[in-house]
Amino acid sequence: MPAPTAQQAIDLETVLVQRTMAFCHLTGNAALIDFAYPGGHLYIHRGAEESVLYIANTPRFAIRDIPGGLSDEARLSLVRRFLDVGFLEPAAPDPSF
Fold first, then answer.
1. Which of 17, 19, 27, 57 is most deeply packed, by most CB within 10 A?
2. Is the confidence at residue 2, as pLDDT, over 70?
3. Which helix (H) or strand (E) element contains residue 47?
4. Does residue 33 contact residue 52 with C-beta atoms inside 8 Å?
């Protein structure tokens, strides 16, 4: 998956989608989750497991909806990692509005 070339502005209301052809494999140990994606790995603290599983299994979501008891700042930071590697991208605007 090609990574984006510039950082996108995001906030808690930003709706994200998994990029076309995005897939992952999750493994880990007691301390870390290994989120393997085409071209690399993200190693994420086990405390974010519920949030990581949600991101991996939910094709479209708003950042504010990510579960797991993370602070808003932590949600944004976690999502930025998935955007930076190209697993997620901002959703196209909804034309019905």
1. 19
2. no
3. none
4. yes
Token code pair at residue 84:
């930076």
**Using one digit for the tens of pLDDT, what is the confidence trace for 67-84?**
999 999 999 999 999 999
Helix (H, G, I), strand (E, B) or coil at 46: helix
The tens digit of pLDDT for each residue in 14-32 reads: 999 999 989 999 999 999 9
* CA dist., res. 17 & res. 30, Å (int): 29
Half-sphere exposure of 62 (CA within 13 A, CB side): 7
Work out the end-to-end distance of the chain between its first and last CA atoms, rounded to an integer number of angstroms: 30
The one-letter amino acid code at 47 reads G
The strand ranges marked E within 6-79 are: 15-18, 25-28, 32-37, 40-45, 60-62
